[in-house]
Recover the amino acids of this structure.
């Protein structure tokens, strides 16, 4: 039966949902390498890997991320499961990690609790370059201590992660959002100021619900009016001021460069005190390649102890775009190093065991499938990126050898089958 007979009538072709994309080889190797560099930076600082479910009880995000955020009001993928529970595909990783820390009583152990995770997040946003409905973050959280050294470490780890990836052309923006002592009074002051401006209805509503977000409005008409607004940094209480000064001193000691952005607000409600964002200088509208901050009320919001935390998330997809924007897209490593080309039935029987033997010896190996002749099989060998083809003809098998062909130079010689693994390993080392 042919392939077309098997599939029956032709059906519509399906494609990935709007705002999502597939990451395919060979580019996917860069995705993995970037993820690896960022997480290695975290492991070197003692962060331990955590997996949490991709979906959580909707309350985790409602209470954690906050009812007044765009993420919760407009962007969540929420559904009711067959048991009648309201579940939500995670729009970020922090709330789930803090939920897990509470559930497993991690705050009772060694503090800070240093956790990291990597995974897909889901937000129903208007897709554009760098803004997707399904995207990947590496996320780091340090829980349970309110120590400015932890803030400095966290901001610096982001910088070190980007260094490890090779990125250079970005700015680290820093701000303090105050805490429950000083922010309520500041928020009132800001609200009074904003109420006096000429703003559209939707923005006026935002003034009432979450006035700090208006500071972040990029529309020129709003931004110009907001330019003279009172700023949180000028209204910090003594505790927040001292904390912020200590963070900046320690970052300076570490040689980390940053710029202060007193209107940096961030889109999630849980932030207190130190907040920061890594903004790439060549990415246009979606330039934030990572961001985070302290969230001293989040654990209590989720029913845990009233304790603090700080963290960041780096957007892996945007980091890849930033690498490309800096002309740093790394050379893709070849898929395999060796490619077995069997000619004839007896050779075909030997090809898979031989490839397996090479793989077990650590040589990445593929082979020609589908009964290809010499020409087709050699084309596959070239396309695989392998440095060597191992050609097995009927005669070779009878003689106990294989022809080892250097696909770069074209040079070819016979190697006894028993010596093949050692010979190839030597040539590839
Ligand atoms: P966030 O700023 O919402 O923070 O996201 C962090 C990073 O994820 C962004 O800087 C961006 O690189 C990437 N990102 C966000 N949304 C999208 C999207 N729609 N498409 C592509 N990339 C995106 C958080 O998520 C916080 N949980 C960070 C944090 C951890 N704060 C404390 N701990």
């Amino acid at each position: 039966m042919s392939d077309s007979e098997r599939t029956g009538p032709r059906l519509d072709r399906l494609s990935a949902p709007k705002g999502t994309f597939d990451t395919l080889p060979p580019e996917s190797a860069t995705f993995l390498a970037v993820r690896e560099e960022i997480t290695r930076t975290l492991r070197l600082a003692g962060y331990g890997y955590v997996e949490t479910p991709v979906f959580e009880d909707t309350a985790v995000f409602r209470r954690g991320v906050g009812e007044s955020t765009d993420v919760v009001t407009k962007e969540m993928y929420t559904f009711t499961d067959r048991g009648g529970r309201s579940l939500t595909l995670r729009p970020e990783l922090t709330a789930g990690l803090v939920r897990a820390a509470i559930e497993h009583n991690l705050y009772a152990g060694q503090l800070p609790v240093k956790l990291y995770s990597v995974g897909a997040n889901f937000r129903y946003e208007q897709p554009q370059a760098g803004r997707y409905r399904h995207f990947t973050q590496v996320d780091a959280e340090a829980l349970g201590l309110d120590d400015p050294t932890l803030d400095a470490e966290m901001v610096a780890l982001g910088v070190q992660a980007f260094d490890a990836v090779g990125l250079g052309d970005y700015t680290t923006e820093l701000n303090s959002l105050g805490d429950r002592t000083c922010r309520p009074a500041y928020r009132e002051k800001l609200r009074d100021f904003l109420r006096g401006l000429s703003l559209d209805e939707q923005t006026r509503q935002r003034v009432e619900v979450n006035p700090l977000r208006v500071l972040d409005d990029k529309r020129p008409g709003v931004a110009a009016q907001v330019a003279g607004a009172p700023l949180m940094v000028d209204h910090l209480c003594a505790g927040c001021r001292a904390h912020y000064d200590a963070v900046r001193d320690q970052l300076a000691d570490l040689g980390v460069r940053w710029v202060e952005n007193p209107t940096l607000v961030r889109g999630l409600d849980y932030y207190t005190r130190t907040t920061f964002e890594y903004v790439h200088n060549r990415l246009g509208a979606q330039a934030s390649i990572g961001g985070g901050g302290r969230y001293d009320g989040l654990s209590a919001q989720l029913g845990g102890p009233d304790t603090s935390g700080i963290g960041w998330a780096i957007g892996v997809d945007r980091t890849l775009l930033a690498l490309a924007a800096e002309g740093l897209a790394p050379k893709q490593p070849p898929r395999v190093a060796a490619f077995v080309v069997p000619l004839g039935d007896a050779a075909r029987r030997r090809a898979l065991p031989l490839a397996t033997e090479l793989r077990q010896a650590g040589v990445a190996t593929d082979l020609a499938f589908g009964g290809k002749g010499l020409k087709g099989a050699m084309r596959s060998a070239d396309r695989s990126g392998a440095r060597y083809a191992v050609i097995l003809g009927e005669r070779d098998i009878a003689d106990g050898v294989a022809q080892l062909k250097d696909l770069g130079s074209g040079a070819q010689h016979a190697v006894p089958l028993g010596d093949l693994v050692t010979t190839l390993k030597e040539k590839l080392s």
Observations:
- The mean pLDDT is 95.
- The chain has 17 helices and 16 strands.
- Residues 27-182+236-325 form a domain with the BirA Bifunctional Protein; domain 2 fold (CATH 3.30.930.10).
